[in-house]
Amino acid sequence: MSLFDSADPGAVAGPATFTVAELAERIKQVLGDAFGDELWVEGEIRNLSRARSGHMYFDLVEPDPSNGAGKQPEASISVALFRFNRERVEDTLRRHGGMAMEDGMKVRIQGKLDFWPPGGRLQIYMSGIDPNFTLGELEAERLRLLEKLRDEGLLAKNQAVPFPVAPLSIGLVTSQGSAAHHDFHNELENSGLAWDVVLADTPVQGVDAPPLIAAAIAAVGRAGVDVIAVVRGGGARTDLVAFDSEVVARAVADAPVPVVTGVGHEIDRTIIDEVAHEAQKTPTAAAVFIVGAARAHLEATELAWEAIAEWAQRIANDADRRLATVSQTTARAAEGHLHRASSRLEGRAGRVRDLAETRTRSETRKVDDCAGTMRHRALSAIAEGRRTLEQKKSGVAGQAMRTPRAAAKELANLESRVRLLDPRKILARGWSITRHSGKVVRDPAALAAGDELVTTVAEGELHSTVSERQ
Amino acid sequence: MSTQEIGYADALSELQQILGELEAEDIDIDVLAVKVERAAELIRVCRGRINDAEVRVKEIVAGMDSEEGESSE
Amino acid sequence: MSTQEIGYADALSELQQILGELEAEDIDIDVLAVKVERAAELIRVCRGRINDAEVRVKEIVAGMDSEEGESSE
Amino acid sequence: MSTQEIGYADALSELQQILGELEAEDIDIDVLAVKVERAAELIRVCRGRINDAEVRVKEIVAGMDSEEGESSE
Amino acid sequence: MSTQEIGYADALSELQQILGELEAEDIDIDVLAVKVERAAELIRVCRGRINDAEVRVKEIVAGMDSEEGESSE
Amino acid sequence: MSTQEIGYADALSELQQILGELEAEDIDIDVLAVKVERAAELIRVCRGRINDAEVRVKEIVAGMDSEEGESSE
Amino acid sequence: MSTQEIGYADALSELQQILGELEAEDIDIDVLAVKVERAAELIRVCRGRINDAEVRVKEIVAGMDSEEGESSE
After folding, report:
1. Cα(E66)–Cα(F3) distance, integer angstroms
2. Which residue among A117, B31, D3, G28 is least enclosed by CB atoms within 10 Å?
3. What is the pLDDT of residue G4?
4. pLDDT attached to residue F2
């Protein structure tokens, strides 16, 4: 279908010529034919304005994919929300997470596309809104961003910055004069501590807010504060959308000092809370936290001092006690030594005495033994001499008696032999000796008859003459 | 480090260190008073730093910085 | 070393050494009195040092407490 | 060495040596009295030294205690 | 050697020798009495020496003990 | 040698010799009595010497014992 | 030699000699008687000597014993 395919019948050949009103009427008609009474469009709210009449106007744009703030959108269409629809729409949004329409918000809206002839503008007359779209879009955006930050390691980056010992110098990023600012300031003042606040005033909502917040964070970071507090009071969920933005999240992650957040109400949690060193729920809570940290260190300091004073006293006392102990030990050791030396010495004295007495006793015994032995041996020698002498005497006596007896026996033997040879013994047995001329006659042949013979017999001699020789 | 220049954190850290030294049994008595004196000085510094009830506020024009940031981009 | 110049730590160390010697069995009696006398002198020195340190610490602590009292009022 | 000049340790050592000699069986009885006399003299010396040391130590200890009493008061 | 001059040890040694001679089987009876007489003299000498030593030792010891009593009082 | 002068040892030796002669078979009967008589004389001499020695030894020993008794009293 | 003067040993020797002659076969009977006679005389002499010796010995021995008894009493 074309805007121009049903030409006016009264028109001459060639392109028809409309009056502006006719054209406007024709456009409205074509639009009505093409889109009907209702359509749904999704896009991002820009240039939202609320008229005194109660109507609301904004542009619904298709942002440039490069997502540069302030860049020309890829497509844009004007939206008008009249008062009678606006109340309903706002009510719907309020009921869904306390949202309110604002710049930068992504919406899916219902309405009629129409041409406004007086302005010569094509616009959508908004009649309704899909709150779930906005919520989902926000959530999806949030999740995407979280994922991205996590991938880059930015979620834990600020948490890795050590929390200062005494965060007395605070870089406060907030909207100056806001309730959040007052709450935060009051809390600091009430603490009674010496705070040095470097205030960076910045809008905290709206489409331009994120880069400004990010710049403020960077600026106080450069100012050399101990800690950065980013605070904003509560509002509609969509009011806090700036704190879900990537540029703010990156500024927090890159901050050189810890960032404490206190954004929104109790239930609100934004991306910045995920990136910050410490996420407190409200500005007051953030101040309380910082005060608490400073006070904790103040207390730690005082405690350290008290402990030092106490320890110093204790050390002196201990040293004193130890010294008293050393003194006692010294005295005891010295006395012990003297006592031991004395008893050792007396032991030795006793030993000298005992040994001397033992020695004289043992020598006495030795000499007495000698005397006893001497007597015994002398008497033994005398007895031995006696015994020897007696043996000799017996030997002499025995031998002396034996000799005459042996001699007598030998003599008797000789005598008996002599006796056997005595001629008188032969004659006594009847034998005789015959002699002739004094010679013993042994052979008759030596004799002649008549020879004179003398025969000796035992009892005398016989004289005879040889008568015959045979 | 002179107490004129010392930061609160350094002061606290030095205090803690002194405490640690005192807690170690073998501190020299001659050093004790010196240490306690230094601790007293540190605590005086810390108290001075923290106990001034007035909140001093310095303002920063973030916008200027951001503009400056943009111009330098 | 003269007891005039000796530090507490050195005095205590020497004292411990003397004590060790006294606790050893074989100390010469002639040396004993000398050692005990030296120990007594060292104890006197140490006691003086402790008292000095204690007085000093008490002064410092009293001073700090009064300052704290003033500042917290 | 004259007993006037002899040290406690030397006296004790000599005494110990004499004891060793007395314990050996073969000491000449003629030498015994001489040795015992020397031992007696050494014992007298040692006793004198111990007594002197005791008196001295008691004085010193009494001095230490009185000082302690004063300082802890 | 005259018994006037003989030492205890020598006397005891000679006595032992005489005792050994007396033990021999074939001692001359004529020599026996001489030997016994000599032995008796030596024994007398030894006894005298022992008595002298004992008396001396007792004196010395009594002296030592009385001193101990005094010193421990 | 006259028996007046002869020593105990010589007497005993001569006696032994006579005994040897008596034990030989062929002693002259005429000499026998002379020998025996000489032996008897020698025995008498020896006996006298032994008796003398015994008396002397007993005297000496008695003397020693009395001395011992005195000294041990 | 007269038998009055002849010694026992000579007598015994002559007797042995006579006995040797007698026991030779060819002695004259007349000589025999003379020799036997001489032998008988010699035997008598010897016997007398033996008896004398025996008596003397017995006396001496008896004397020895009696002396012994006396001395041992």
Report:
1. 68
2. G28
3. 62
4. 57
A100 vs A135, A235, D9, CA distance in Å? 11, 9, 105
What span, in angstroms and rounded, lies between the C-alpha atoms of A69 and A211?
Answer: 9
- What average pLDDT does range D35-64 have in this prediction? 89
Q: What are phi and psi of A299, to 5 degrees?
A: -65, -40
Residue C26 distance to chain D (closest CA, Å): 9
Give the type of residue at C61.
V
Q: What count of residues does chain C have?
A: 73
Counting one residue from F and one from G, how many pairs have CB atoms under 8 Å apart?
38
Assigned token pair, A205:
């909502």
Say yes or no to pLDDT of D72 above 50.
no
Please, is A462 exposed, middle or buried when counting C-beta atoms within 10 Å of its C-beta (0-12, 13-18, 19+)? Answer: exposed
The DSSP secondary-structure symbol of G7 reads: -
Q: Which of residues 7-66 of F touch E (CB under 8 A)?
A: 7-9, 46, 49-50, 52-53, 56-57, 60-61, 63-64
Cβ A190 vs Cβ A232: under 8 Å: no
* C-alpha–C-alpha distance, residues G70 and G73, integer Å: 5
pLDDT in tens, F22-72: 888 778 888 888 888 999 999 888 888 899 889 988 888 888 777 665 554
The residue to which tokens 């020897």 are assigned: A388
Nearest-5° Cα angle at F39, F34 to F43: 150
State how beta strands A121-129 and A75-81 pair: parallel
Q: Angle at Cα A376 formed by Cα A374 and Cα A380, nearest 5°?
A: 115
Q: Give the C-alpha distances (Å, rounded to integers) separating F59 from A100, A438, E38, F54.
A: 154, 87, 13, 8
Q: Is the dihedral of CA D36, D41, D46, D47 positive or negative?
A: positive
Torsion of CA A179, A183, A185, A188, to 10 degrees: -170
Q: Considering only CB atoms, which chain E residues are within 8 Å of A382?
A: 29, 32
Over its C-alpha atoms, chain E yields an Rg (Å, rounded) of 19
Question: Rounded to whole angstroms, how far apart are CA atoms A33 and A11?
Answer: 22
Under an 8 A CB cutoff, do A345 and D46 touch?
A: yes
Shortest Cα–Cα distance, D12 to chain E (Å): 16
What is the distance of C-alpha A222 from the center of its chain? 42
Q: Which helix (H) or strand (E) holds A306?
A: helix A283-421
What's residue C72's pLDDT? 47
Cα separation, A432 vs A450, whole angstroms: 20
The token pair at F48 is: 């006298």
Partnered with residue A126 across adjacent β-strands are A111
D26 band by pLDDT with thresholds 50, 70 and 90: confident
Phi/psi region, residue A450 (left: phi>0; alpha: psi -120 to 50; beta: rest), is left
| pLDDT value, residue A285 | 92
* Terminal-residue alpha carbon distance, chain B: 41
Instruction: With CB atoms and an 8 Å threshold, state whether C30 touches D50.
Output: no
Q: Helix A209-222 vs helix A246-254: angle between axes, to the nearest 10 degrees? A: 10
Give the pLDDT confidence of A56-100 residue by residue, as tens digits. 999 999 887 775 555 678 899 999 999 999 988 888 888 876 677
Average pLDDT, chain A: 86
Over range D8-16, report the average pLDDT: 90
> Can you tell me which residue has the tokens 């009264």?
A10
Give the DSSP letter of residue A225: -
pTM of the shown model = 0.57
Considering only A239-243, A407-411, G6-10, G41-45, which range has the smallest mean pLDDT? A239-243
Residues forming beta bridges with residue A21, ordered by sequence position? none
- Please give the angle made by the CA atoms of A249, A254 and A258, to the nearest 5 degrees: 90
Residue F21 backbone dihedrals phi, psi, to 5 degrees? -65, -40
* Phi, psi dihedral angles at E57 (to 5 degrees): -60, -40
E8 vs D30, D43, D51: nearest CB: D30
